[in-house]
Amino acid sequence: MVTINIGSSDFAAILPILVVCAFGIYLMVQGVLAPRIHKLTLAYIGLAGIMIAMVSNFYLLGIETDRAYFEGMVFVDKLTVTLNFIFLLTAALCLLLMTSYSEQEEIEFIEFTPLILFATAGMMLMGCAESLMIIFLGLETMSIALYVMAGFRRFNRFSLEAALKYLLLGAFATGFLLYGMALIYGTVGTTNLTQISAYYSENALNLNVMALFGVALLVIGFGFKVALVPFHMWTPDVYQGAPIPVTAYMAVGAKAAGFAAVLRVLVLATGQAAFEWSQLLWLLAVITMTVGNIIALVQSDIKRMLAYSSIAHAGYIMIGIVAGNETTVSAVLFYLVVYMFMNIGAFAVAGIVSGKNEQHVDIKHFAGLGKSQPMLALVMTVCMFSLAGFPPTGGFMGKLYLFKAAMESGYTWLVIFGALNTLISVYYYIRVVVAMYFQDSKESVKMAAVLPGVGLVLLVTLLGIFYLGIFPGTTLSLLY
Amino acid sequence: MEDFIWLIPLMPLLGAIINGLFGHVLKGKAGLIASIAVLISFLYSVKAFLMVLDGVTFDGDLFTWIAAGSFQANFGLRIDQLSSVMMLVVSGVGFLIHVYANGYMHGDRSVGRFFAYMNLFVFSMLMLVMGNNLLLLYLGWEGVGLCSYLLIGYFYDKPSAAKAGLKAFLVNRVGDFGFAIGIFIIFTTIGTITYSGIFENVERLVSAGVVTTASLLLFMGACGKSAQFPLYIWLPDAMEGPTPVSALIHAATMVTAGVYMVARFSFLFSYSETAMLVIVIIGTFTALFAATMALVNNDIKRVLAYSTISQLGYMFIGVGVGAYAAGVFHLMTHAFFKALLFLGAGAVMHSLADETNIQKMGALYGKIKITALTFIMAWLAISGIPPFSGFFSKDEILANAYAYHPLVWFFGAVGAFITAFYMSRLVFLTFFGESRVDPEVEKHIHESPRVMTIPLMVLAFLAVVGGLVGIPQFVADLWGGSNHFHHFLEPVFAAANERLHLAHLSHALEYGLMLASVLIALGGIYLAYLMYIKKAIDPDALAAKYKGAYTTLYNKYYVDEGIDAGLLNPIVVMSRWLWHFVDERIIDGLVNVSAKIVMLISLLVRRVQTGYVQHYASVMVIGVILVLGYYLFS
Amino acid sequence: MLSIPVHYFLILGAILFGLGVVGVITRRNAIVIFMSIELMLNAVNLTFLAFSNYLNNVEGHIFVFMIMVVAAAEVAVGLAIIVAIFRLRETVHVDDIRLLKW
Amino acid sequence: MALESILFWLFAMLAVGGGVGVVVHPNPVKSALFLVVTFFALAGEYVLLMAHFVAIVHIAVYAGAIMVLFLFVIMLLNVQEESRLAGVWGFMRYFSVVLFVALFVQLGYFGYQGFFGAENVPLVRETEIGTVEQIGTALFSQYVLPFEIASILLLTAMIGALYLSKQKLGLGEPARAARVKEALHEKEEAH
Question: Taking CB atoms and an 8 Å cutoff, what residues of chain C touch A172?
């Protein structure tokens, strides 16, 4: 007879996911049944759902942690809770951005809100996955929602091109990811991460080619999502074409989700055999940082520049992954939080400056912003300095922890490469600041209005960056 | 002591926040608030200094800043002899310059912004000198760099200003890169970031074999911040900023951060002879090299900028040969007279409608007397005329340099000679001789307002008597006194001095060197006098008036000519060549070329991003094959 | 049915996977590229089932179902995007769709 | 040669042949039909692997639903026969063969070398795991969470596909659509 060993605590373990999905389904039905509802109302209900999910996320701390639920499908630990928080906050901020963005562009919240909620649910699943199957399904839920969101300006050829490229290459990468999962399954005989972990640590010294290929293909699949060179090619095109709030969501949420999976698989599950791939990851980290930063130097489109910058930042985060010691997880998580604030802040400003139809996305359109919109310019400056890693911003602290983790494992050269790359990156971040303060605008750029929603986002990012830069300790001890 | 020292950095920070947020409302009051904030800091610094004088030092944590697992960083301050001196200099000179800036920046559009940056700078600089750990040092280090960048580019309507700010920023990044790596090496080897912890465990760096690397990397940071060869190129351009900024940041305080840092880590540096040697070589070379570039420059602020670079070189000679107290002493006296020179230059420009070309000045002595008199005192101080402050500090460095190696002394002395010469040239061309001022401007020449001249007078006082606290021991012995400054700093450098065993010179030699210093200074001034005052006298009028003396004078003129052709012309030519060719072409060029190469690579690499999905996919597949291949063959 | 070695299936999967990759790289038509990706996913399915049989473990079968679900979902969204692009640009050739580059 | 071996080779050749057809045939409709051949052949291989239920679902989902969708779209868009990648990029064809060989040698040869041992070649086994009952039990006990997630995933895809392909914009305001198109043209001109 079939026995089902699933109790209420199992549902408690995925409570935030359930809340988010429930709201997504509700909103979809609501939108269909009452089409006259004001579109922003849908967005605000969605926000409320995210808020409730955030609150319910704390409930996870109450249940028994550090164990698996749903017959070994999901795992609840501090990492789960932190990742949920990152994903939910990202979704909330991007949804807020979208409410403002909908003033300059027709956005249908009937579809958008459920999509962003489902995407967030997918990310959270990746964050708490205990099985390769859950990682795969979470990743695909997220990706499919993102494919559509990238093409959300569906009468804009740039947006649709971004969606198509993302979809084709994303599905292509999924193929490799699945092949890797199949090889791991064939090697270990299960997709459960704890058992995979046990297998890899027992046989760390005599893993056969198939076992190694499996993990390598998995790294490639995740590397695509987090935009590691040479699997980054989609990033600039898709970031440039997608609507700005969606770009922000992809840049932060999808990357965080990818790194969540990397943490789950590479650090926590197969970590014992880390020496087998640490060299490879070392190489990937260096190439990723360098390529991202070097190409970013000559970009004039702010979204494209931020895309290459996000590639470079994936490289920085890889430094922490390569380290593979006990500080890795907290360092990576801290950086992800910081990265969320500074990137969303930058994209929020870019969204306002770009104006209707995203016409003004060139860096030269930022000229004179320091005079005309001092607060916007301030937020952008802080974000740029944080991305470039200056104290006392969170970006500095984040890099500090990553580099520290690498140093503790003896990767001095990696840290030197990281610092050199930071040096290069200053140049293109500072270009934006120079444009804003040290140049006068030649043409009058009609910007979008700063609505309360986006104002809130700007405030949160500003406070977040400084808080993490000046008082990182509390956050860091909460993270992991 | 901990009940009030936290107020010292807090006050300027508050000032910065107030001016930053409400600057546009406060307008004229912004300067007042900024000055008061720095004044309070200064008063507390004096209090702290007096306590240190009584032997009370402080090294402790005010609160835990970051605590995460194995990593703990505290907000800790260290008030000892060295930092109390630095605090006095930063807040004291800073206060005077703030007061001066009230007059100088009067009527500027965004005074609030200016003073917010200035206060932020003072805050960062105080954090830099007061912190008791590497993280706060780095925080201050980046903070002052940022403020410097913002202030250089303050007149952003001028493209050259914005460009200069960017240049300063980017060049400093190169130094900071090394600095950060150095800090990281120290931190990971020793496992702590507090100074006290590091000094207790320097042996670990030695046993790990990284002490020289770490020291040199730290010094790389110092090279950037303190404008040493080859990272000095940003400083002359930085003169695009408002003059009070040049005085505060690019003369008195920020650029000395590197010297402070080396002095702070004297114990660490004392373990690496190689690093010390590198510091001496770079310092000596910069001292001489920058001085020659100041010879023919006609921009009053640029002359002072090259002079600053050169003087910083002397300070590095001091800390490099192990005479830390002497280096810090020169840092202090230099802060007085160089700030004074810059502020004086600013006052001159103020009087002359922002004219900076000294060829368009002259005979200003009678018209702006206070400015001229104070400027002259600073000139005498920097030239090394006893008993002005610069004499004692420079002499002490040169004496110690002689003990290290006579060759260092020789180059230093040549530099001193050139210094005396170009400073005299500057003074003579500006204040004496015939007026070459634009007649239009000449009508409006006026003395600066009181708010500007009073700081000049205070600084002039300090520039004159500031050296007396550090009269060399062998001179003080004459009346049973002692070298107070040296004595005061003794505890900080005791450990390093013990390791280094500085050679002692005989008294006769010390007197001899002192005499040589004075002669060199006088020689330089005299030569400038011959060239720029004598030349200015109209020979025809002279000949008519003093027929008998004419021949002699005429002959003397021949001497001048001879000197001109035989000695000076080559120097002038060389100086021009150094300035135009080496500085502008090679050093600047190298920086530009490397930037261009990176750009070119960037332009090429971006072409890989063709927009074709197929190519993206094939790049991915190649990546897959390489990754799998890596496992196959490893 | 005991005479076929499992790795025959695995190698067949690898061949089909490689063919799919070739299709993605060489074809211009977005729809055909999509079909090539389906080929890759089917190769993975075959691999999963072969392993499932080899290990006598049902998990592989479940995984195959999930892959089918995902494939169907991707096809739905992908074809919708292709249709939307065709409406706007009147082409489905990916080498014509390259406004975003460099 | 046993019957199952013959069937294996037959299906394998059909699958590979179909795959090659998909990749090389210039006509998208023919490509799609080749893909159907591959799918049927693969279903045969699944049966040989004792995965009967998967084989049936495979036919139903892939050949029945997905391929119909493909063909439908191809017909709808009236896609022409495709000329090969032109110009400098034409070499992609030859290059892709190199990539194929490299990938195959790595995955297919080196990856599965563990199975090549002469004595203990693992053979396909007689097993009950592929039955409807087994799979149903697993799906609704241990794998109930993935099953539910799959529903969310399908919902996501449904919303997305609907949004992207629906004709009118917003709440029935054709004027708005016109405005958007206008703005689009402006932007194009700006570029």
Answer: 24, 37, 40
